[in-house]
């Protein structure tokens, strides 16, 4: 998107505000589809947790995507957005049997990641097809907090528990229709991904009636110009070829499934915030914006890097700034960044703000969550209103009758 378009959006809808470019989302979806064009049956299930706005889900549905969900609420959002139940897969972690049964009643595909629930579900619903999430014990991802396939992870059924898993399946006579893994986010080394895939293929041989194998996602996207990223084209060539060969060994064509989230929406997102104060200290120049980790927590949560551009003064002389927020604790978006000279009132643009940004926002410090705007075919469309004070207190139950204000003594003047 052009800087002028973003500035116009900030003027029209106010700052802070999230902006999503549908053209970029569409091109990423087509790129991933093309990379695996050698596979007869490919299914991309967009990971709703990355950006779950209803309008974005409708866009994904229009592209032919399925939907990967991790909560019953995401399932309901997907159905509301027009996805068919059979195009939604429900992949929770550590939820109750009751929630899984609720998803079953809604008709979506079920993915189970622990032996306890698998046995209970298989005993009660042996005829409902189930996908099994395997933990391949492979350390992959850009940060320990987003690496989910290692041996100490809470996710998935350990490959060392396959005998126990097979015993449950045999005794309950349940129908296993898919095998799934997800090793982590920001995967760069495709050889690690391919190694984990071989573990998945070996596991799949234990089940005769599979319909699909789900390889998760976690592809790394560039966070700045020239940044390294997952070579999707090379992965498509190597994994696609290996998958087709496995299908011949297996005896029939299966569906190759992925759950891309960040890959599809991260680069499409922009977060715009206005500079409140430029503050010089003894060693640092701070640019304080009208936002904080209540709106964009990733840098503080796990050290995520977002390129920051001064779109109000893009040709200005570059200086070093630490960009910080207004939350009353350490609240840093970026330290000692080279940014075009920042003036109070300027609009700063945070790149790669499409994935896990608005969805992780909160009302901390009783601040309002920002608006969301979709940029589609050259026009800005409001898709989430900025919150108001009424939104903050909407669900609070005020027990005012339980408390009386203290009567304070008058102070003589």
UniProtKB/TrEMBL annotation:
Location of N6-(pyridoxal phosphate)lysine modifications: 49
Q: Where is the Orn/DAP/Arg decarboxylase 2 C-terminal domain?
A: 18-354
Q: Where is the Orn/DAP/Arg decarboxylase 2 N-terminal domain?
A: 23-266
* Cofactor list: pyridoxal 5'-phosphate
Q: Which UniProt keywords apply?
A: Amino-acid biosynthesis, Decarboxylase, Lyase, Lysine biosynthesis, Pyridoxal phosphate
Which PROSITE patterns has this protein been placed in? ODR_DC_2_1
* Active site, renumbered: 328 (proton donor)
Pfam families in the cross-refs: Orn_Arg_deC_N (PF02784), Orn_DAP_Arg_deC (PF00278)
Residues binding pyridoxal 5'-phosphate, per UniProt: 218, 356
A GO molecular function annotation here is: pyridoxal phosphate binding
| Quaternary structure annotation from Swiss-Prot or TrEMBL | Homodimer.
What's the stated role of this polypeptide? Specifically catalyzes the decarboxylation of meso-diaminopimelate (meso-DAP) to L-lysine.
Family the entry assigns: Belongs to the Orn/Lys/Arg decarboxylase class-II family. LysA subfamily.
Protein name (database record): Diaminopimelate decarboxylase
Encoding gene, per UniProt annotation: lysA
